[in-house]
Amino acid sequence: MKQEKMPTSDSYHPYLISHLKDPSYAAGYIEAILEEEDPEPELLKMALSNVAEALGEQNMTPEQAKVHREKLDELLSKSSSEVIYNLGTWLNAFGLKLTVAVAEKADDSNTNAASNSELSVK
Question: Is this prediction's pTM over 0.70?
Answer without folding.
Answer: no
